[in-house]
Design goal:
Shape of chain A: elongated
Strand content of chain B: under 5%
Oligomer: heterodimer
Largest sheet of chain A: 4 strands, antiparallel
Radius of gyration of chain B: 16 Å
Structural class of chain B: mainly alpha
Largest interface: A-B, 32 and 37 residues
Helix content of chain A: 40-55%
Shape of chain B: elongated
Number of strands of chain B: 0
Distance between the termini of chain A: 39 Å
Order of helices and strands of chain B: HH
Number of strands of chain A: 8
Number of helices of chain A: 11
Strand content of chain A: 15-25%
Chain lengths: 299, 98
Amino acid sequence: MSGLPAGPAAPALVCAFAVTRTPPDAAALAAATGHEEGGPLRVLRAGGLCLVVQDVPAALFDQEALAERLNRPGDLERCARAHHRGVEAAHGRGPVVPLPMATLYRGDRTAERAVTSREAVLDALLDRLRDRTEWAVKVHAAEHGPDAAAGSGSGAGADTGGRAYLSRASARRRDREDAHGRALAEAEAVDAELRRYAVAAVRHRPQSERLTGRRAPQLLNVAYLVDDAERVRFTRALARIAADGRHPAVEVGVSGPWIPYSFARWDEDPDRTGQGRTDPDRTEQDRTDPDRTGQGARS
Amino acid sequence: MTAPRAHALDLDPERAANDLAALVLTVVELLRQLMERQAVRRFDEGTLSPEQEERLGTALMLLDRRMDDLCARHGLSRSDLNLDLGPLGPLLSDVPGD
């Protein structure tokens, strides 16, 4: 399947999934399906590294077609799952650097060159990600009790008088601000506790309520890179946080272990992964998150 | 939840009228919240005279009730009026219990 004609008129593009040091297990690769519209998964050699790729039809994957498809939640989810399958197939023998979803090249040569030109960065990343997994933690404010509804319409609200109304509004605002401040402080405390067991952490933009399907706002959306040796302590810390009742203002949700997508920025200095354009990866992974299944179908 | 509206274009005229009503009410609710916030700030600072407090409070209270009526008439709850502005967060910060 090599030797595709290069250039904008090419009928197929090369979709790259992940970089590894040792070639992935051939049987696992053959058994996996990447994008349903594309060919079988295969391995390119690029310098000392391996790149797992798949040929995909240009008609569906050129910039325009892809942008349009990724705007549809159903297609986005399918694409993210396909990408995750490709990355998982590459995983399994040693560390893997997952590439951002829909990393496309005109042909094998361009793809290989992209890897060889960044070999040093990728090598460092492979070292950094070896025997480590990602855990996604989302902290939400606890849902309010019925007291938050006070003041509108019925019963107590009938207590007329403008001043009374203003002082009720004032008290309501103070309560809300206090509750929010408490929840934020607890979220920070949870984060600080979990960081003790993590090699690194990346804060992502909190997800909107539409995406989470919750009424309470998401306060913290953090990915932790956890050493396999620390995994038990990390999950124990999470269990302790959920159980000991020291954080009544927040709810903590976790998913993992994941392939460390959030820590695999190969176009950035690994020390700077904490900032900036980490969101596209995040979206992709959240869509792959089993918790999120069906979300796309509902909207 | 406003979610089902986001990705479908529904040309049912009744539904379209209701969506328009929801949008108008969203703008009104935003203004109402801004006014209320301003009034509460001045109330807390104590820079209003008792008559001003009474007048402002009464006006806001009536507006609040009127919003309840209007929402009920269009089959909406206050939380339906909120818009998700993505990275900017929700449009309306004061999300009432219902």
